[in-house]
Amino acid sequence: MAASFLPWLLLPLLFAAAAAELATYIVHVSPSEKPAAFAQHLDWYVSAVRSTAEDAAEEAAERIVYSYGHAFHGFAARLSAAEAAALEEVPGVAAVFPETVYQLHTTRSPGFLGLESHAFTDLWSSAVASHDVIVGVLDTGIWPESSSFRDDGMGPVPARWKGACETAADFKRSSCNRKIIGARVFSRGYEASAGTLEARERSARDQDGHGTHTAATAAGAAVPGASFIGYAPGTARGMAPAARVAVYKVCWSGGCFSSDILSAVDRAVADGVDVLSISLGGGVSSYHRDGLSVAAFGAMSKGVFVACSAGNSGPDPSSLTNVAPWIATVGASSMDRDFPAAVRLGDGRNLTGASLYRGRRSLAAGVQYPLAYFGGNASAAADPRALCLDGALDPRQVAGKIVVCERGITARVQKGQVVKQAGGIGMVLANTAANGEELVADSHLLPAVAVGAAEGAVVKRYVKSAGRRATATLSFSGTRLGVRPSPVVAAFSSRGPNFLTMEVLKPDLVAPGVNILAAWSAAISPSSLPTDRRRVGFNILSGTSMSCPHVAGVAALVKARHPDWSPAAVKSALMTTAYVQDNTGRPMRDAATGEASGPYAHGAGHIDPARALEPGLVYDLSRQDYLSFLCTQGLTPPQMRVFAGPAGQACGRRPGSAGDLNYPSFSVVLSSAAARQTVRRTVTNVGAAASTYRVTVTPFAGAAVVVEPGVLRFSRRGQKLQFNVTFVRKAQRPAPEYGALTLADGAHSVRSAVVVTYLSPA
Q1: Is residue 271 annotated as part of the catalytic site, yes or no?
Q2: 545 is catalytic
Q3: pTM tops 0.90
Q4: Which of 15, 381, 599, 628, by CA, is between 20 and 30 Å from 115?
């Protein structure tokens, strides 16, 4: 027993006496290596911190920020860099990483997704109620008084629920009900880095609006007569309106800290959630160093489905976050609803745009007003005046005019505020080439119209040619339905390839994320600008933050219908039933280019809830399958212990190929050195007992593809059959080729996206 203490007792001798600046570190441990002398893991953690402390060792317990022990094991602590380095050498410690700060990835969608027919709604709502599916939302909290969270007709809270409703001065026990069954606050990591919150701030009440919006999108109750100041009128409802909601507040004004996120996921798993919706992300350098990746792995291991937003850094390639294969990575697409507005130039040309403006400062119909653009020329955007940055506009040049502003650097609504403060009467917000023709509507505080890059260029050329004679007027047309084509992949939606593992195609799929109506917090204005005094019950937002809860909510519906399915089976059902055509019957387009979208933008395709209910076949995966995949990624034994525990997962001499992960999509890399690749897949029959599936594959110009066997015959439900897919390079191609592998039995079409990348010789 004495020997087990020796490493802990000797470590203080490694340090100098002077105290160093402390920061928060995440410490992952192998739980079975806890010395027997410690009754509790927390005692072990305190002893470890005390033994490594450079000074004030008696305060070791106060250094512990969190202790984790449900989805994974470890703790968060305030340490110096030297203490963290020394702690990493201690037996039982798997890894020590510095705190990471994540950022939020900032109706019509149920109907657009086919969820509003009476038969379909009754079927799915009753399925959720019968299983009492619980959706956990990690975000900025919730506004419990919103009508989206009423519990009309809901039964008692499931007996299996272990969560709590943490109260505060502005969040009473009555703030929870049979709909909002849990509300917890995680702020210790944030406070350790950014300063102590006031007691009244440490509340699950949403002061930002983002969390209320995402929770309502995932599982909000049906609210007839909803709208945003008259825009998008109708019944607002979440994807799974009968599901329960559990709120985990992890995001604050300074961001979302990884120690808080890990604690929230750990607690959510212990509480008993079925699905997690996490609309945030940060930089990713590896699977084992990404706290959200590690937390999601632990949740998956306990049977919890995790959906995360892909990020809003598109259309740049390899701009994704949350790329781990055990996470459902969700990109954003548009719907068939928009909010048309128009710019009429003084030369008679009409340009179409979008806006959510509705205020008392509307421009007189048909009256032309002076139009100004301060970019220097028709294409320049470097001038701060062109970007309408704070303090950049001269009131003497702006007063009484409509001003053309370029997107970029500051928030879109902030640009309008700058124009308004300088005396402008309106704004034309022009997309740049990166934004393409995508139109994101905003609730501006002055008359403003967003236009695409092409229309923006027209406006700027007109101003340059007309000079001081340039004029324009703005008009607003409310809400339009039936927009074609739709869906379209959002330009801002982050793109693949997955820079950690090209063989894992990301994003996984796309869902509505442009101009989404959902509940809002009464604590903040719809524009989030301090000068905006408006308060609304519903708001319209865009971002992969909005697409993520769509997938989480639909996953709750699938889980309700198939409660015994693993998270991987649920994700497979969502991916293999996704579609890649728009409502004109053509390939789904990319808003950034106007051309056909590809799997690096839309993954498997656009979510289709009705088909996901009965996919026919699923590509299933277990915790061990993911560990085998991690063995292909070159992780060291200590790094593997972050996921696998004390054994560190004995990978063997030949860990295999990342391409053999039983994923519902295919991404194959062919080179001169590896011109032939064979990948293996296993499908599980979840459809008719006796069924025969025939395999078809898109032809590729640069590779021959052979599937063996080409026919799969099932005799019972639950039966698993394997097939191999061999890719042989025929010719070098300058760009990846896209296609699909489909298994069809006449009733089901199980589609997997396929990407073949050809590496050039060095």
Answers
A1: no
A2: yes
A3: yes
A4: 599
